[in-house]
Amino acid sequence: MRKRVQKHVPNAITCANLFSGCVGIVFVTLQDNLIFAAYCIFLAAIFDFFDGLASRVLQSFSVIGKDLDSLADLVSFGVLPSFIMYRLFLQAPQINGVSEYLNFISFMIPVFSALRLAKFNNDERQTDSFIGLPTPANAILIGSFPLILKEHYSFFTDYILNPFFLAFFVITMCTLLVLEMPLMSLKFKNKDVQRNIYRYILLMFSAILILFFKFAAVPAIIVMYIALSIIQLKLIKS
């Protein structure tokens, strides 16, 4: 009985990820509440982390679990952030004949997220690292935008509410999702400091940035994650 329950724990956590994504879509589409929708992305990301951790700890792996995880990620980290982005486009100053059509570029996010997840499920190279930006990282970055606007950071506001910047941002992030660019995984398979040095650096500086800048630190953390991954790759090759 105990083993049977343990078998379903990871999938139950994955379903909580999916549930969070669905609730977030309700907040953004029916209630126009981008703040709670953003929180749902962060909550889904927590569940996404722990379902993988639970699978490893309980040694409960299944094909169904892998597919379920991708389906949940597509909703929480693809569809939900695309609706948040669409709402941000609507809040930005509208430029007649141009920006009204740019709004729909938001829905490139779930399309490229689906491609990213499909590649991940069928790419044997992505066991210890990622090829392309992980969908949770992209979603968390988008989810930080409404929270940054709430804190009235003027430096970011001018960009976040600029339709042309948002369009450029969407195209860039969609490219990064499917780009053949190796990025490090945050999974710690051992406690060796030397092997995990870049993970520790990322976590340490992320904690410091969040402490001082709160959600405004998220864009810097994502950039730092990509930069450290590139540095790590170059050192390994050399």
The gist of it:
With 238 residues, this protein is mostly helical. It has helices at 2-30, 34-58, 63-91, 99-102, 108-122, 135-150, 154-160, 163-178, 197-213, 218-237; strands at 129-131, 182-184.
Helical fraction equals over 70%
> What overall geometry do the principal axes of the alpha carbons give?
globular
Radius of gyration (CA) equals 18 Å
| Poorly predicted runs of 5 or more residues | none
Following the backbone from N to C, one meets helices and strands in this order, namely HHHHHEHHHEHH
How far is the N terminus from the C terminus?
Answer: 51 Å
Question: What is the spatial order of strands in the main beta sheet?
Answer: 1-2
Query: How many β-strands, per DSSP?
Result: 2
Structural class: mainly alpha
- Number of discrete helical segments: 10
Strand content: under 5%
* Biggest β-sheet strands, sense, barrel: 2 strands, antiparallel
Q: What is the arithmetic mean of pLDDT?
A: 88
